[in-house]
């Protein structure tokens, strides 16, 4: 096996510096060098089989309408983050989440941040995810974001940037946990030798937070996980989390609201529900308030929620805080609410509503990534360095027609990590999504996260919906 | 501690086990008929007819045309997408129900169903069934179903979910036993005093996993009345009608323990009448017509019970 792939001089590689293997990766490198290609391929196949047998798959439909199940690719070589780097990430995310929660509490109540001119009112008013229906709501412990997935990338010198905040229904945490379980099986010695921090307590921490949000002061509140159903691409994760926390996995049709109280339909009659960890987007939660033709939600749910008879996790309306245009103001939020300097940097972001910034972007489209403010999962994104002239022209027209709907950011060369591809180490770009939990006792982050990999050579798009894969992430102590 | 169960999930677990039991019974019948097809018996007037008659929607003419066509039957029963009751489609349906109740079934059970699903969807399977590998495939599937039952018994908690799954399984098994019995008694006009030999009855007994027990329990000819005793009234035979009804009764008892609804009482009475009907039938003096009636009436009453049971517990939409 080739020991050191060719490095990008303008980028940061997690395993190699120009002087060779970084110290945190030495044992991993040694293990890999001691294995021949056949053994490595065997381990890669072992991991793939394990994902397949557990049903950690998504379905691809061919011309004959026969579904073929595929796994989300898992690369067996772990990504390592040192304790020093992790501390920066952890404190930075805690700070950010604290500010975002204060922002949501403020924006759905007093709106001081607008009154003091920190954030333009027009930006909030034009945000499609600002939910007027929950204005004035009081949520338990003033927590709106109970679970957040913060996407981080590393620049050319290894510095961390926040790429985006996921504050609605962040997914992928089951992969963080399952990836570790697979690693235990394929590299037990290597894992033990590296003193890797545990991530397995995540479901317990989360369950405790869910219980603490119950509107009824009872010892055993009924906490449920609301899923759109078995055809949802994240259904595996929903079942995984429900099983890990020992809570019922419900669909909208299993719930009913009576007199502003939510019940689930059981074989012995109706049973009151106290807390709903919902994996449905806001607009599908309640057909009486949002999409009237949707059957995924529960009629009357928002009314019960506003009455305080049921807690929803995450709270309704969080989309206003992870809107890509609002993202640019998070550093200002941190200064405004916490009177602190942001620990984690934002990627420089240009608002297309701002004529000056728009002209700047238009003049340098080849080095920009254009993103739709209300899209995620890699959809609605134009990479300036890969797009054709026609695509760039179309992007300019779309921006000019609806500038609020777009932002632009300079293309940052994401850091790379070696992946096992065709039996050889090849560098691929990665990002990192740690999962933060916010409860009455503050913010807790399990030391780990999901490393997503752009498996296509040179690609910077890591989303699983766009052909990305994942790696186990080790925070070494 | 009392645990509530979502009606939808209970429904899913009930049907998961019904589909798996159907698959199990069908594979056992297929295995029996396939292996016996290598013996060119002179009195084999049915071939795959009992299998095709109960487990498929084929018309009588199609069944007659294909009752000795092993190649067609293997593919049609195991992996034909158009056959709603093929092993492949039943496993797909079972897995769908398992997915919907994944938080209530064990990881081990889910992974077993899931790997069976992937095996059934492998593109090479239909081709392999045309080769000498066919018997190996049927044997593997039979073992997979045995393993399913083992995993079910060893890993699943004995709560409400277990009750619903067990009731589903035994309703399905009871219907299979009755239908297979009808398939072998109907051609001889339910003649209990006939002299069909063991070669005739072993097909039925092997299809119901009861051949060895029969040999151990009953001596010599005539068989016609003894086979009825085994498949309907023998409490030691796990596929007999009375055994399955008794188990259903036991699990109903658990389900109804805390249920004071009048509908629950009605349903329990309804099932009690059905069970008593079989239990108090005197098989020593059973006439040919009575045998036919017992089988027909039991099927009709069990189907009605199954419908009413679903209405009571699974009305969640």
TrEMBL record, chain B:
What positions does the domain DUF403 occupy? 5-314
Instruction: Check the record and name the InterPro entries matching this protein.
Output: ATP-dep_Glu-Cys_Ligase-2, DUF403
Q: Which domain of life, per UniProt?
A: Bacteria
The protein's name:
Alpha-E domain-containing protein
